[in-house]
Amino acid sequence: MNPAISPEADIRVLQLLAKSFPSVAAASTEIINLEAILNLPKGTEHFMADIHGEYEAFLHILKNASGNIKRKVRELFDTTLSADEIRELCTLIYYPEQKLEIIKSQFEAAATADALPTFYATSLQHLIRVCQSVSSKYTRSKVRKALPPEFAYIIEELLHESPSDDDKQAYFDRIIASIIETDRADAFIIALATVIQRLAVDELHILGDIFDRGPGAHIIMDRLCQHHAFDIQWGNHDALWMGAAAGNDCCIANVLRLSLRYGNMQTLEDGYGINLVPLATFAMETYASDPCDLFGPRLDKDDTTHNEKTRRLIAQMHKAISIIQFKLEAQMILRRPEWHMEDRLVLQYIDKARGLYVKDGHEYAMTDTFLPTLDPAHPFDLTPEEQELVRQLHHSFRVSDKLQKHIKCLFTHGCMYAIHNGNLLFHASVPLNADGTLKDVDLNGHLYSGRELLHQIGMTMRAAFNADTPRDEKRFARDYFWYLWCGQDSPLFDKARMATFERYFLCDKATHEERKGYYYLLRDNAEVCDRILDAFGVQGKHRHIINGHVPVRVAGGESPIKADGRLMVIDGGLSKAYHNTTGIAGYTLVFHSRGFELIQHEPFESADDAIRRGTDIVSSKQIVELSGRRLRVRDTDKGQELQAQIAELRALLYAYRHGIIKEQTRK
């Protein structure tokens, strides 16, 4: 027997395979198809991290594929179109519906509407060329699946015909003319632009933190849930919202506090229908005489959407939920002593009578001493009014259908880590010891490290939402979301503590320090990165760790490329809240068939500005690593799968030709 066909187990596999490929001809055709695919250029992968609700910038970067579309347009038309014409064409690709309306109104205003057909014909020809370029690395079958059904046949014809061929010129021109004559030009342009956007990037990787700070996490999630191919490695802010959706009251309080801190109620109210009226009512009554100056929202300097009355209400709500959060967290810490977080029982150290914070023999001045709901004898107890408020907020998060839908999407497409084409992806860290070895971390009474730790954490997170999880296990899993948010050994946090209370209430800035874990101290060490890659089973000569979480302080000279190129950090500060710290507005990473390109972005003005003025995110490109030859599908994880399928099909051919398995004739 052929060595490729061993034992009966393989025979059973081949018998199953024979149902899909019942003859020598069918198996041979599939081998030919797969071999052809292996020699196509590798698809483009797009990496983004730490989006933090900045939906306009996210959607724009998604539309322009981190500048990949503009690069292709320039390659195609650099010698035939002006810079303004290239900019206009790119804007038409990014925002076809809105741009078409503006262009048509301009033609009407100039009384040149009769020139519109010429614009349509020119634009269609340009878009078809761009579409041909972005689709060239895919099979016809894959391209066909990306086409809108309404125009699939026509687009496919145009993509595979060359108007430079004299014999086809009339055919090509007639199709375009017919599209215009039947008033379908707008719809066709929109369809082509959508196909270009989709094919410009083969896979999208989100390295965590979709939520918090910015106003549109729900809009981002809506877009991602419709995306054709994406995965997410959960971040600490994602875990916080997942915990809130699971009914973890500590997570709910933190979600509310962060939203109020950045004056962002859109995601809560407009996105998920969270009822904030009970919190507003409680805050106005409890802190009616308190200016709450230190709890005002962090807003843009040019903010005009929040008047003084609104800002004061946000400040009152912010303070109210902060005190409730510290009480809820204390109750959690007492319930989970195995987490060793007694240091975070902060409210017990407040000397309310003297207005001081007294701990370990030291007295600290407080920024705010008006604490009407704090009982010094029982500092961790909620008042009856606070208890009722927590109950109402808990209910609101649990019954939000859209929030639960989005969390389900995160579980469907996400995990704690992923390995793609020699790249290890995770959001923040892998817990390490001082010597750079993997740290053993206790998870519900069991010690895990490295890959197994992240896997078990992911399974625990899922257990909080699974209907068949035993009651005690589900309660632990629900509680654990809060530990992931702020626990010392959490790979999503990895600091000695979260000093939220100290930053809010203690004047001494030395108390605000959050000492980082060893991963952040050692991640620039190539040997440490190699040890992590080995532990996760990442192979290949050119392998990398890619993560986000910690903003890269570009203004201070920090580089996102670390450990001799083994580690790439792509959180450069997409969130507006980070811009002053980082000096830029984020990094994205593109991995195409020629290698890696790191894209550094400047702040994005607005989608409206991009549509009307053709402005784009100003981006600069840094070549991280170029391949000596163009990478093909056979060089990827998908290529390994296809080669395994080819081996099985060759074994099936052998079995057919030697009578081990009979060909099936169709009746």
Report on the architecture of this protein:
With 667 residues, the chain is an alpha/beta fold. The protein contains 27 helices and 17 strands. It has a 7-stranded mixed beta sheet with strand order 7-3-2-1-15-16-17. The protein has a 5-stranded mixed beta sheet with strand order 8-9-12-14-13, with helices on one face. Strands 4-5-6 form a 3-stranded antiparallel beta sheet, with no helix packed on it. α4 (68-77) packs across α5, α4 packs across α7 (116-135) and α7 packs parallel to α11 (185-200). The chain starts with 7 loop residues before the first helix and ends in a 10-residue tail after the last helix.
Helix run count: 27
The low-confidence runs, each spanning 5 or more residues with pLDDT under 50, are none
| Average pLDDT reading | 90
Helix content: 40-55%
Distance between the termini: 31 Å
Radius of gyration: 29 Å
Query: Approximately how much beta-strand content do the residues carry?
Result: 5-15%
What's the story with the biggest beta sheet?
Answer: 7 strands, mixed
By DSSP, the count of extended strands is 17
Give the strand order of the largest sheet, numbering strands 1, 2, ... along the chain: 7-3-2-1-15-16-17
The geometry reads as globular
- Briefly note the structural class of the backbone: alpha/beta
